[in-house]
């Protein structure tokens, strides 16, 4: 999917990247195909040395990164690095290569919808948050900014570790490792710069976890309490909040999102926010596909409730929706 069919990325036009890349980067055009995996990834791994990576990105700061400042509500904003900073030039302007690249370098409309909702409604972080298919990770960055504000205020009660691990934090998951390193980590650094001094970044890194690869493999690790999981992952593999934006772009992706949510959202106390288009023309998926998939999930004594929080319809493009999901014991 590229350019002429439809474009997900609403910031790409600003930097002229939407129509410049090859339609299929795996053909070797531009001589850069060696940087992209050639087969579907079925494994999952955790990013190491997050603290040093965030520090390096923080030190690089304004001098290195081209970024957008996207207004959210009032004076609030979220910063997003441009796709062009990535070393994967062969993927720029490409929306998706199924099983190889899932579009994580771009900023998608629905991720901004979700960020705006989190800020306007003053959604705070009260436990462990998982952002599925995070890409640039902007919703997760909005939640991390809340942690940064706590650290900056010196609120020991709200930031103290329990048994050496954080009682809350954000897990960023994406299909591609280079997405996390090229854009997600720089976004974290850019978004906490205003509220957190460098000396406190070491503390912030204790609340950040990142993983890349296949969702099913990730789920197996989380639920099996694998020793491969970082120590600040919830021991039961269940999350207080799950965030997902534009992860329902096909029927299969919508189904995967629904099943991951069903397996990893805390019953009764957990909440998930799914930002999606109502329908993705040409590829299926959307809110209807997600709702149908979630309705088909059968868990003993658990019922899923989906509420449509917001509908965005400007009459000129795809209708977008923001869904809220609860799992209730019955």
TrEMBL record:
GO terms for cellular component: cytoplasm; nucleus. InterPro entries: Methyltransf_16, SAM-dependent_MTases_sf. GO terms for molecular function: protein-L-histidine N-tele-methyltransferase activity. Its EC number is 2.1.1.85. Its main location: cytoplasm. This is protein-histidine N-methyltransferase. The keyword Hydrolase does not apply. Keywords: Cytoplasm, Methyltransferase, Nucleus, S-adenosyl-L-methionine, Transferase. It comes from Cylindrotheca closterium. The keyword Cytoplasm applies. It is an enzyme of class 2 (transferase). PANTHER family: HEPATOCELLULAR CARCINOMA-ASSOCIATED ANTIGEN, HISTIDINE PROTEIN METHYLTRANSFERASE 1 HOMOLOG. Belongs to the methyltransferase superfamily. METTL18 family. One of its GO terms (biological process) is methylation. It is found in: Cytoplasm; Nucleus.
């Amino acid at each position: 999917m590229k350019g002429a069919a439809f474009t997900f990325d609403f910031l790409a036009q600003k930097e002229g990247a939407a129509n410049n890349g090859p339609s299929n980067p795996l053909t070797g055009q531009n001589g850069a195909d060696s940087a992209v995996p050639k087969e579907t990834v079925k494994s999952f791994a955790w990013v190491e040395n997050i603290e040093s990576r965030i520090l390096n990105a923080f030190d690089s700061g304004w001098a290195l990164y081209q970024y957008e400042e996207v207004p959210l509500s009032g004076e609030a904003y979220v910063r997003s690095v441009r796709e062009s900073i990535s070393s994967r030039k062969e993927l720029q302007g490409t929306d998706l290569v199924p099983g190889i690249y899932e579009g994580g370098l771009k900023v998608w409309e629905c991720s901004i919808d979700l960020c705006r909702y989190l800020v306007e409604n003053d959604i705070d972080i009260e436990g462990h948050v998982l952002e599925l298919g995070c890409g640039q990770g902007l919703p997760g960055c909005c939640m991390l900014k809340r942690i940064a504000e706590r650290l900056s205020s010196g609120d020991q009660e709200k930031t103290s570790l329990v048994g050496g691990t954080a009682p809350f934090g954000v897990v960023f998951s994406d299909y591609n490792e280079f997405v996390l390193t090229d854009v997600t980590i720089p976004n974290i650094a850019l978004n906490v710069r205003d509220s957190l001094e460098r000396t406190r970044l070491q503390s912030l890194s204790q609340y950040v976890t990142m993983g890349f690869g296949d969702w099913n493999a990730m789920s197996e690790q989380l639920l099996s309490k694998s020793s491969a999981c970082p120590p600040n992952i919830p021991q039961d593999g269940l999350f207080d909040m799950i965030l997902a934006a534009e992860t329902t772009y096909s029927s299969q992706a919508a189904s995967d999102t629904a099943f991951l949510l069903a397996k990893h959202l805390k019953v009764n106390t957990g909440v998930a926010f799914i930002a999606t288009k109502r329908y993705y023309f040409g590829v299926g998926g959307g809110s209807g596909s997600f709702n149908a998939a979630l309705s088909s999930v059968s868990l003993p004594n658990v019922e899923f409730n989906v509420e449509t929080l917001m509908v965005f319809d400007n009459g000129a493009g795809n209708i977008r929706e923001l869904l809220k999901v609860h799992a209730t014991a019955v």
